[in-house]
Amino acid sequence: MEQLVQYVAQVQAFTALGLGLIIGLGAIGACIGIGIMGSKFLESAARQPELVPMLQGRMFLLAGLIDAAFLIGVALAMYFAVANPLLAKLGGAG
Questions:
Q1: pTM for the complete prediction?
Q2: Superfamily assignment of 18-81 in CATH?
Q3: Predicted confidence (pLDDT) per residue in 47-73, tens digit
Q4: pLDDT tens column, 1-22
Q5: pLDDT higher than 50, residue 94
Q6: DSSP readout, 46-77?
Q7: Are 92 and 13 in contact (CB under 8 A)?
Q8: CA diameter of the chain
Q9: Residue 29 CA: distances (Å) to CA of 3, 60, 79
């Protein structure tokens, strides 16, 4: 019984580390991606101001897609935080 408790604690600890990595690296990646895309938009808007309406729509579309990818990672991380399937497997084995 004591060994099962140790396994459960270890799975929860590794899950917490994984959640931090998923959310942290996903946020960093989304910020860098939106920053690079925004800088390229400003460069292109300064070079050809007549294309700003078309470029602006595409920039917002890409910003939404970048944020959606990050939020999918957050949703997956929250799934593991709330209903961890690894703990279910551990409980079934014991």
A1: 0.79
A2: F1F0 ATP synthase subunit C (1.20.20.10)
A3: 999 999 999 999 999 999 999 999 999
A4: 788 889 889 999 999 999 999 9
A5: no
A6: HH-GGGHHHHHHHHHHHHHHHHHHHHHHHHHH
A7: no
A8: 71
A9: 39, 17, 21
- Cβ neighbours for 70, distance < 8 A, ≥ 6 positions apart: 26, 27, 29, 30
Whether 57 sits among the annotated catalytic residues: the reply is no
Contact 66, 34 (CB under 8 A): yes
Please state, in angstroms and rounded to a whole number, the distance separating the CA atoms of residues 22 and 25: 6
Identify the residue whose tokens are 């300064």.
46
Contact 23, 74 (CB under 8 A): yes
Q: Which of 67, 68, 88, 89 is catalytic?
A: 67
